[in-house]
Specification:
With about 450 residues, the chain is of the alpha/beta class. Helix content is about 45%, strand content about 10%. The C terminus is likely disordered.
Length: about 450
């Protein structure tokens, strides 16, 4: 008789995404890869899979947990299609098809769930709710958690006011698509995750999922570390995905409204722009004085340690800005706009950032940082301590694990586990007034 293999022991979490989690060039990939590392460090058994095959495997321990997305059987395709039926079936098929996702592709997730029997399946990225749809009809199914991070329908709406009116129809279509995905695929989910109370509140209201939880972004505190010696040259830095609408808008405004004023007072100052993309903007800034467009860098932490000051003049978008956390972890004195710090918690009396609203405030803040380097360095150290206390990826992973355990208890009719950090950690006053809609979401805050 042929020998039968014993069933694999169940794992804690299967982490999935449409595009690979490596390299972590985009927000969803950064969240997914860092959460995976932290869950593994915390003792959870994890496997990782993506609908699209990565160009190369991730390094280190993540490579051993990566699994190829299986081809779907006819039965699994039929199961997935049945999950897309009902009154909203035509809407689901149109929305998913618009994003290039079909039941035939998604259905391979069923084979992974049978193979590894995870306690939870956590999907990352804007189409994560679509990926989880094939599992909603399973009788003994795992916890389904969508780590959405940003609430994209509101994000695109917020960008419209800063864009050319000719782009408004496109932005409106994008906002409608993602609102449709949230509303039509969200109600069967057990957990949805936003990165700020505003995002979480809106995700919870639209998806009507079992629980909406805020998990703020983390930062790699080992990679992003302070420079040992102060930088004396007046070098200002801005970095990120440079064709990302909020980043491109921020750079256009800053280089037009602020930077010429700074150069007039500090002719030796230099603005360094780091990150991929943004070819059109690069051509526009080619003749700007004191602007050095560096583009993509292999070692961002090392490049940041060459800066004296960081700027984040964001005017649109939602969520949490990773560049602010990276600047704080590097110990960089940082000037930021009020929209850039939305979603972050800190004591306004000991702010890790200097908030600037008008071109005059931006100019004065930069010139002051150049003139008082020791005071700027102390602000950077304050920011580093704040990042260590508030924004480690391990804390984010612990919060996700707690959300999964809470959903398990709710589905099983057991009392929810307690999280003492939620009661013992004081809620600092927000640095700026938040929209009234966020007040009901504070109960979700990490």
């Amino acid at each position: 008789m042929p020998r039968t293999r014993p069933p694999r022991p169940p794992i804690d979490a299967l982490l999935v995404s449409e595009r690979p989690l490596w390299p972590p060039a985009h927000g969803f990939a950064r969240h997914g890869s860092e959460i995976a590392r932290s869950l593994l460090a915390g003792g959870w058994s994890v496997r990782i899979a993506s609908l699209e095959r990565p160009d190369k495997r991730p390094p280190g321990p993540l490579a051993r947990r990566w699994r190829a997305w299986p081809d779907a059987t006819a039965q699994d395709i039929a199961t997935t299609r049945s999950a897309w039926q009902g009154p909203l079936g035509p809407v689901r098929r149109k929305l998913a098809g618009h994003q290039g996702v079909t039941p035939d592709r998604v259905a391979g997730l069923l084979a992974l769930v049978r193979r590894y029997r995870p306690r939870a399946v956590v999907s990352f990225g804007p189409h994560g709710a679509v990926l989880l749809s094939c599992l909603t009809k399973l009788q003994d199914r795992p916890v389904l958690a969508w780590y959405a991070a940003d609430e994209l329908a509101s994000f695109y709406a917020s960008c419209a006011k800063r864009e050319n009116p000719l782009t408004w129809p496109k932005l409106a279509r994008q906002a409608a698509v993602f609102a449709g995905i949230e509303a039509s695929f969200g109600p069967s989910l057990d957990v949805v995750v936003g990165v700020s109370p505003t995002d979480t509140h809106r995700l919870g209201a639209v998806t009507r999922a079992g629980e909406a939880v805020t998990i703020r972004n983390g930062v790699d505190l080992k990679a992003f570390r302070p420079c040992r010696t102060p930088i004396k040259q007046p070098i200002v830095g801005f970095w990120g995905q440079l064709d990302f609408t909020p980043n491109a808008d921020a750079l256009r405004w800053f280089t037009q409204q602020v930077w010429p004023r700074v150069r007039a007072e500090a002719p030796k100052s230099e603005l360094r722009i780091l990150g991929p993309g943004g070819d059109k903007l690069r051509k526009r800034l080619a003749k700007a004085r004191g602007v050095r467009w560096i583009g993509y860098v292999d070692d961002l932490p090392a490049a940041l340690r060459e800066l004296a000051v960081a700027v984040t003049p964001t005017r649109c978008g939602l969520g949490i800005k990773n560049k602010l956390l990276e600047a704080a972890a590097t110990g960089l004195p940082t000037l930021a706009s009020p929209p850039a710090v939305r979603g972050l918690r800190f004591d306004p009396q000991r702010s890790p950032f200097t908030l600037c609203r008008t071109p005059t405030e931006w100019t004065r803040g930069l010139l002051d940082a150049f003139a008082r380097p020791e005071a700027a360095r102390m602000q950077g150290l304050t920011a580093r301590r704040w990042a260590q206390r508030r924004h480690s990826w391990m804390k984010a992973a612990e919060r996700l694990a707690w959300a999964i355990e809470t959903a398990e208890a709710r589905l099983a009719g057991r009392p929810a586990p307690t999280d003492p950090r939620l009661r013992s950690e004081p809620e600092s006053a927000p640095p700026i007034p938040m929209p009234a809609s966020t007040s009901t979401a504070n109960r979700h805050a990490a």
